[in-house]
Amino acid sequence: MLFRSDFQLPNDTIRLRPGGSGGGQNGLADVLARLGGSTVPRLRIGIGPLPAGWKSADFVLGRFSRQERDAIAPLLERAADAAEEWIATGIQSAMNRYN
After folding, report:
1. Beta carbons of 26 and 76 less than 8 angstroms apart
2. pLDDT of 94 strictly over 50
3. What is the pLDDT of residue 2?
4. Residue 65: left (phi > 0), alpha (psi -120 to 50), or beta?
5. Fewer CB within 10 A of the terminal residue: the chain, N end or C end?
6. Stretch 23-52: mean pLDDT, rounded?
7. Distance, CA of 36 to CA of 70 (rounded, Å)
8. CA 20, CA 11: separation in Å to the nearest integer?
9. Above 60 in pLDDT, residue 4?
10. Is the separation of the CB atoms in 50 and 58 below 8 Å?
């Protein structure tokens, strides 16, 4: 099952960050609150922009269509490569290479 991620980022974009705010995302804000701070590294996957007429929560929590899944597959592979780099060499190195 594949759910959407961040509509604030353009489609086909990933961003690694060493920390920061929830950026208006309720789920991320909840994670940060439970962990007690904003210094939680994250990998964001762009799905934006928000389509006209959609509520942000409905869009972010909605499932991709088969056509959208096929289109986003290369981005997910790139995100997986970035995560491997992050684990192997640290977030700063991965940010330099993939952001």
Report:
1. no
2. yes
3. 41
4. beta
5. N
6. 83
7. 37
8. 21
9. no
10. no
